[in-house]
Amino acid sequence: MKKKYLFLFFLLFMAIKVQALVELDLDEPIIRFEKENDYVLQGFTIVDDNLFTVFIEGTEEKPLIKIFNIKNKKLVKELKPNSVGHANDVTYNSKEKKIYIVNGNGKDVVHVFDAISYEQSIVKLPLPIRSMTYIEDKDLYAVRMVSTGFYLNSDLSLKSKFPFVIGMNFSSDVGRQGWAHYDGLLFYSTWSWIRLGGDGTNTIYVYSISGDSLDKIITDSNIGELEDVAFYNDKMILGFNTYDDYIEFYSVDVPKVNRKIVKEQDDEEVIVKKKDFSYLYIIGGGILLLIIICILSKRKKV
Fold this sequence. Notes:
Layout: H1 2-18, E1 31-34, E2 40-47, E3 50-56, E4 64-69, E5 75-79, E6 90-93, E7 98-102, E8 109-114, E9 120-124, E10 131-135, E11 140-144, E12 149-152, E13 174-182, E14 185-192, E15 202-208, E16 213-219, E17 224-232, E18 235-242, E19 246-253, E20 270-272, H2 279-301
Parallel strand pairs: 16-20
Antiparallel strand pairs: 1-19, 2-3, 3-4, 4-5, 6-7, 7-8, 8-9, 10-11, 11-12, 13-14, 14-15, 15-16, 17-18, 18-19
Helix pairs in contact: 1-2
């Protein structure tokens, strides 16, 4: 009889463990519009209550910046600045009121915009980067080269000659995009490049600010190429170049990801789709009820 109870407790434990999976939803885009000519979305960030988005055309000489009010989803301003390169990533320093656009293309410069006047300047960096995010509580920038990450001080000098994260060597068919900091974590966007043999899967890799690999989030592969993520009022904003020539932005609750160090997570993915795990609560409750009934019935026999 004891073995029977142990087995029931084991089933209850497994049911509770499984129900901890996060339920997210990419339902309807909050912003959607048709692409202009050959302009494609690259990096974006949140600037106060605005979504600051950067688009480039084929030559990368005539970028386009669109600024949307994130509350009413309306376009509030358009800018046509000087070239910002590939604009692979964008971040905002709220203390300095400055927006940083990563040139990319293997160059060691960022394009800096005043968040009020939108005056544009160029700053040289100590190394070529492809992703950049500002960590406000530490007054540092986390930057990524191809497969390693470094920290820059507030003056954009190198904090240490040693990287804080290494080994982000994804396969050759992966498009490496922007990353963003939120609540002590780094969310790094990638896309499995169809033209290079990928399957269109969008994966967001989650790292601690110490460089530990923690988790990954898989988004809907039918929408298009995920370019970047940003965060606003406990929401994750995801931006796509869609497969039907539209630009789409989605807003979802920030997922509760694993914060413990793991080695491999290929079989443990948080899927950003409609999923309902509520039935597991019923299973757990049913098992618990069964245990109580068994205990009561045994007492009656005694």
